[in-house]
## 1
Amino acid sequence: MPHEDVYEVLYTEPAARDRDRLDPARRASFDKAVGILARDPYTELSRPIGPGEQDREIRLTSQIVAEYMVSRGRLLLVMLRIFDDADILLPEEG
C-alpha cells in the first residue's frame, strides 16, 4: 500500500472555538471533511483567496466554510464560517 502524505492540521484559537461549539452530528461531518482536506489541501473544490496559492477557502460541508493556509506540511484552519438555516432572512422558495 503506498504511503499517503497527510498534512498536519492546526487551528487558530477562534477556529478551534467555533469547531468545539459544533453539535455532535455537525462535528462528525466537519472532522470527516477536514480529514479529506488534510490529504489534499489544494483540491479543485478549494480556491485561493490571496495573491499566492497557500491561502485558500473551501466549503467543507453544506453549512461550514473554512479559510486556511498551507505551508510546509501543515494546514492551518484560520477561520470558520458556520451557517444555520434558522438565520436566513429570505428562504428560497421551492
## 2
Amino acid sequence: MNALLSHARALIPLLAVALALSARGQASFRKTVLEDLCDNPMELAPLPDGRVVFIERFGKVRIWRPDAQRTVLSGALRVHGNVNAIQAGQADKGSWESGLMGVAADPGFSTNHWIYLYWSPAGDAPENRVSRFALDGDRLDVASEKVVLRVPVQREVCCHEAGSLAFDGQGNLYVSTGDNTNPFESDGFNPVDSREGRHPFDAARSAGNANDLRGKILRIHPEPDGSYTVPRGNLFAPGTPTTRPEIFVMGCRNPFRISVDRATGTLSWGEVGPDAREPRPGRGPAGFDEINRTQSAGNFGWPFFIADNRPYHAHDFASRTSGDAFDPAHPVNPSPRNTGPRDLPAARPAWMFYPYSPSARFPAVGSGGRTACAGPVYHFDPSLASEVKLPATFDGCLFIYDWERHWILAVHPTADGQPGRIERFAPDIALKRPVEMELGPDGALYVIEFGSGWENNKDSRVVRIESVPVR
C-alpha cells in the first residue's frame, strides 16, 4: 500500500503538467484527414449542415460529406489555362496562379443554397469573376450562375491573382485581388516600371490605382437578383471621380487569404511580400510579409510602402536611377498608367510584419521563406454542444498561418487591438504548407494542406484539427 501511495504521489506532478498543458490548449489536439486525394486544393467553406465545400484550382468543386465520410464531385468549371500543360509544367506564365481560387457560402445558405466562387473563366476575355451558384443537394448547378462582379486582369505574364472570399455579419462580401503584376524583374523591390510596353511590371497601375480593382480588398453587398450594391464606409464614396466605390482596402500586393470576424466586423488578411533580402539605399526596404487588420477602409501602401510604412524610392527602370522616397503621409502615384487620382489617401502601417531573417519584434514567426495568411478569429461558445470545439483559452485570438513555414500561430490581441501574446498552435501536429483555414460550425479548424511541393502535389489534403475530448 505504501508503495502504491508513493507511486500515486509521484504521478501528481506529472498529472498537473498534463492538466496545465491541456488548459493551454497545446496538448489536446488531433488531426483528422477528411480527404487525401486532392488536386491543387485552394479554399474551403464549411456548411451549416456539416458538409465542407472545397475547390481545386483547375476547376473542380468538391464536397466532403460527414454522414458518408467521403468526398463527392459537385461540379466543374472551365477555367483559364491549359490544365494538361500546367500539370506538365509547360503552361504559359499568365496561367500560373489563375483558375478556381475562392469560395464562400452565402450567410443564408440553409435556405437559399447559394455559394460564391472567385475564378478565371476560360476564353479570350481577360477577367476574373465573382459568381454565385446554387447547390442542388451536392450538385453544383452550373446553369444557375449569376456573374456578380468582373475584375479585368492581364494574362500575359504571372502573378498575384489572390481571390479569397469572406462574408461579414451584415451580409457584405469581401473579395481579395492581387496586384496582377510580375515581380521578378525588380530586384526584389517594388515593380513600378513605367516604360512603354511594360504594363505587367507596374503595380502602380493596379494596386496603387484607385480606379482599378486589382491589388485591393473589395467590399460589396450581393443582392438576391445577382447584382450588388456598395455598402457605406468604403474607401471612395459612389460618384467620386476616377475611383471605384467597391474598394474597401487598396495598396495590396497579394492578399492571398482574408478573414472577417462577423462579431466585430474586423477584416484580417495576410500580405505576401517581395523578395529583397536586404534594404538598398536609394531603392527601398527589404521584403516583408504582413498581417493586417482593420475595421475601416484604408490605403495600406503597396507599391510605395511596406511593413511599418517603410518607403520605396521613385525609380527609373531605363536609367536604373532613383529619386526621392515616397511620403506615407502624402502618397502620390506618378505612373503614366494611373487612371485614378494622383494624390492617394495616407498609407497605414502593417499590424504585424516579418522578413526572411528572424524578427526581433515578432520572434514567434521564426525565419525562412514567407507566405503570410490570415485565418479566423475564434469565439468560444460555452453553449455549443461539440466535443471537438477549440478550448476557451483561444477565445478572441486570431489564427494566422504561413504556407512556407508550416505553422499556425494564435495571436491574442491586447485591449487596444495590437498584437499581444503569440503562441504556436498545436505544435505537435505536423502540417505541409497550410493554404486555407476556416472554423466550422462545430468549433473545429478545417485546414487545407497544399502539400510538400510548389504545386501538383500527391500529398495535398483536407483535414480537421479538433480538440481531443477529455474522458
## 3
Amino acid sequence: MEIQKAYFFRVPPEVFYGIGAAEKVGELAKPFGRRALIVTDPGVSRAGVVDEIKTRLRSSEIETEVFHKVEPNPSVETVEKGLKAFEDFGGEFIVAVGGGSPMDVGKAVATLSTNGGRITDYEGVGKVEKPALPVIAIPTTAGTGSEVTINLVITDRPKKHKFPVIDKNIAARIAIVDPVMTLSLPPQVTASTGLDALTHAIESYTCTITHPVSEVLALEGVRLMGAYLRQAVANGKNLEARDKVMTGCLMASMAFSNTRLGNVHAASTPLGGFFDVPHGIANAILLPYVMEFNVFGDPKKFAHIAEALGEDIYGLTELEAAYKAPQAIKKLSRDVGIPKTLREVGVKEEGIEDMAKEAMTSGNILVNPRATKIEDIINLYRSAF
C-alpha cells in the first residue's frame, strides 16, 4: 500500500464567496480601519465597479481614495506610485479591485508599508519578515487567483524581468469572490483569464509535488472551466457560467498556491518581461505545446485531464487518452478566440534564447512532470512562434 507523504495545505485569506458577496465589503472592512486605498486599473474604474465598492465602504463610514494607474504586467514604478498614494492619503488598509495586476500591486503596497524598502528586495521565496497591512481582494476576473495566493508578480522594466514575491506574510486578509463582478468582463479578457486559471489547474495537478487535496481541487477546476468557459465567453451575462468558471478558478488557485506549477508558467513569465505579453494570453498560447511535451511524464494524469475536459476516452490506451488532453485545449482555445502563435502577440524570434535562459531560472521547471533542459524550452518557444 502506498502511504501519502506529509504535506501542508493553507488558504491564508478568509474567503467570502457568492452572488452579491461584494455588497458586504463595507461590513467586512470595518475591523481594518477607517481609511482605505482602493487599488485598481483604468478599465475596471471606467466600468463603474469601483464606484459601487466606494459606496459600500462609505456606508460603513470608511473614507476612500482610488489609485487606478495599474497596468498589465505592473512595474516596480507603479508599486512605488501606489505606495506614495497610500502614504499621502494616510491609508490604513487596501481594497484591491480587478484582475491579478491590481491585486498584486495592492499586496505589494501593503507589504512595503510594514517592511520598507523596494519590492525588488523581496524577490523570491520567504523574504518578507513582517505581515503586510490588511488587504481585501475583490477579483473582477476568473483568472490569476491572486486573491487567495501567497504570490505576487511585478515587472522590472529596465531589466525586462518579471519576478515573483512568495511569502505567507503578503497574502490578502479577506478574499471577496463574487461572480457578479465578472459580468462586464469583455469576451477576450474572459477567455484569456479563463485559460490562465485552467493552466493553474492543469499544472498544479500534474506537477511533481501534488497531494490528494490539491489534486481534487485542481481536477474539479479543470472540469468546471472546461465545461463553462465557452458559455461565459459567448454570453458574459450568463451568471451560471460565470459562477462555475469563478468556482473553478478559485479551486485551481487554492491548489497551485499549495503546490507549484510547471513549464507553462516558467516560459510565460519572460514573455511578459521581454515583450509585455499579457500573462493569460502567454499561458494560453503555450499550454497545449507544454502539455504535448509533458504527456510522457505522467500519462495517467493527462488521461484524467482529457476526461475532465469532456473527451471520450473509452477504449483508448492510457497514452492515447493522454494525448486527447492537449487536443482538447487547442479546441477550447480556438473556440474562445485565443491567438494561435506568439508572433501574433508581438514576440520577436531573436528574443527566444534569452527568454529560455530566464525561464530555466524558474522553480517551476524543477517540479514539471517531465525533466526539462534549456533546449526543450527553446523548442517550445519555436513551436509556439
## 4
Amino acid sequence: MRLTGHELKQATDGVWRKSEPEVIEGISTDTRTFRSGDAFLALRGPNFDGHRYAADVAHQARALIGDREGVRLWDDLARPQLEVHNTLEALGDIAHAWRQKLQHTTVVAITGSYGKTSVRSMLHHVFTALGVRSHATKANLNNLVGVPLTLLDIPAETEVALIECGISESGEMERLADIVAPDVAVLTGLATAHGEGLGGLHGVIAEKTKIVDGLAAQGWVLLGEGVAETLVAAGRDIGSHQSLDPQQQDYVQWALRGRSLTLRYLQQQAQLELSLPARHWAANMALVATMVLRWFRLQEREVPALADVAAALQDWTPPGGRMRVLQGASLTVIDDCYNANPVSMQAALDTLAALQGHRVAIIGDMAELGEEAEQLHRQLRLHDVDEVLLIGPLMRVLAETHAHARSCHDVEEAAAWLATHRFPVGSTVLLKASRSMQLERLLPLLGNEGGAHAV
C-alpha cells in the first residue's frame, strides 16, 4: 500500500497528533512481526490491548494508530499518532481506501461454507502458472483483521487479487463486503457451518450471500456446484448482478472416473489425474477453470487453451490439512484435519470409500453447528470403510449404528490407542475434524508429518 497521511485521516475520520507523515507504505498490527517503517495500528481484544505494546516498536514506526483511550499512553512517544474512534474499524477503512486505488486489479472475494481455501489456492496457482500477476490470502487471514491486512499487502501492479472471506457471526460479511468491494464474488458452497453463530442454514445463506451486496457496478457472481439450487430453495435472490453457475454453457463441465478427471469447455476437452478420487476437488477445479477462462476473456486477452489450465491444475498441491496426501513407509494418510462441517466431512468419507485396499476413518467432532449438532453428526454416512475411530462426544452417536467403530472421548485417548494399534500395511487413513479437535497431533503416530503429493 501507499497512502498519504491526509488520505489516512480522510479514510478513518481521524485526527493526527504531534505531526502528520507524508506517506505510509504499510500497516502492522503485531509487534512480534512488525516491519520497520510501517505504521503500527493497535488493536484491542478480550485479553489484550495493543496500545500497551506500541512503545516496543515506536522507534521503528513511521506512525502509530490508536483510539482515544489508547493514545493517552503514548504522550512520551515522539511519533506521528493518528487518533481514531475504533482501531478495528480504522483498519478496514484504511484497507478499503487502498483497495479503491487498485483500479487495474480484479478483486475477487471468495466465500462459502466449504472449499474457500482450496479454491483460492487453486486460483492463485493457475493464474500464476499462466503468467498473471496475482496476490492471494495467506494462511487463514480471512476475517475482519486478516482481510484488511491482505488487501493492504496487495502490490499496485497486481492483476488479480484473491481475497478469502470467512465469517462466524452475523454482520461480519456485510462489513467485509464494504471493505473488499469485489469485482467478482465466488460462492463455493453453502451448508450448515458456523450455524451456531449464524442461526442455522438459513442464517448461513443470508449472511454468506451478503458478499454480493458489495460488488462493483459491473461485478459478477460465480457459483459453485449446488449453490444456485440452494439459493432458490431458500428464496434468496442475489440481485441484478450477472451470475454464472454449472448449468450454464459458459461454465466448464466435468466428469470423474476413479482418479481421472475430464474437463469440457465448448469444443475443448482436457484430462488430468488426481491423487484422490475426490468429487469435490473435481467440482472446484471446474469452477476454477471457469473463473480463469472468463477473466482472460473479459480482459480481452488471449484466452488460454483448456489444456493449459488443466496442466496447471495437475501441478496444484493442496494446502496443509486439506485432503493432503501424505505417503509413509506403510500407510497413506489423507490429512484433512484443518476443519470440518457436515458437507466437507461427507465428501472426505465418500472419497475414502472410493479407494481400494484397507480404509480407516479417524474422524472427530464438527464444531459450531448449534442445536442441530447431534443430528448432523448422526446423519453422516459411513460406508465402505474397514475401521472407524470416532473422537469426541458428538461423534460418539455414530457408534450406536456402527458396531465396529471405536469411540474415544478426546485426542489424548485416541493417541493412547493408536500407540498400540497397527493398521495393515498399505492402509489409507483419513484424519478429519474441526480445528478445535487438534487431530494433527495424531500425524506423528501414523508416521506421516510431511511429504505431500501433488494432484
